[in-house]
Design a protein that fits this description.
14 helices, 46% helix, binds S-adenosylmethionine
Length: 294
Amino acid sequence: MEHVPVLLKEVINYLDPKANENFIDATVGEGGHTIAILERNKPKGKVLGIEIDLSVYERLKESEAKINKRLILINDSYVNLEKILKENDFQSVDGILFDLGMCSWHLDESGRGFSYLRDEPLDMRFDYENYLTAAEIINFWDIKEIEKILKEFGEERYGHRIALAVKEARSKERIVGTKQLVSILKRVLPKDYEKGRIHFATRTFQALRIAVNDELQIIKNGIEQAVEILKPEGRIVVISFHSLEDRIVKNIFKEKAQAGKLSILTKKPIMPSQEEIKNNSRSRSAKLRAAKII
Ligand SMILES: C[S@@+](CC[C@H](N)C(=O)[O-])C[C@H]1O[C@@H](n2cnc3c(N)ncnc32)[C@H](O)[C@@H]1O
């Protein structure tokens, strides 16, 4: 599937790349936003792109030489932002983008169980050095802990019911694949789950992915470091894909604004147009917030 960067026009509008400015793409993924930035910060501006997933990184790295000499790619987590900048002597940063979560490749091609529409091993790791997989959580975590992540990270109101069903199922056999998990969910969730607005497995899969990759903890940490490393007038743009992430971004922006460190550029989150949603259904839950360093 062709990769379409989410809210591209809006990202460029708020990051506002100009000739010779330097940017960080903290979640470079398939490089869609990065390429658009590189088009605009010619001839000497650079982009430092960080990608946690080795497979995604390697795919992009292959085309790095072709893409641009002004692109520096790093396989690491943005949670190590300050360290990465020091190690690469990357200074004077005019803007940073966080486009959170997974990319289309994870869903469509990774084979790691990110999609409830496929039958794949329950893995969900971005980083293979991380020992924790979705299968580990489902088969070995205390049922109360499973219920807790379903409620907290999935905002799943049927967390208790699902946790009990998992307990029963795993007492019979190991739950190793996405299809197995989906059929357990199907058995216990109402037929008209959320009136058909979302697939009944959406919240459970979201919760597992967040838990496996410790996603919520690192967002705050990453943004805090970003605020410290940006130049005065530096721009920070964050795209999130669910309300938990958006709340974290909103709160940390508010906190930093109150501390006099930044001014918020988006009173309300920017969302994709109907047209973008029609062309790219994955953009439908995206919310963009932007701020400028004082
Ligand atoms: C939504 S995609 C980014 C898409 C990208 N903006 C583009 O246009 O192609 C998010 C990417 O961030 C990566 N990622 C997730 N957590 C990360 C982290 N802690 N540090 C760096 N990259 C991360 C994921 O592996 C994924 O490739």
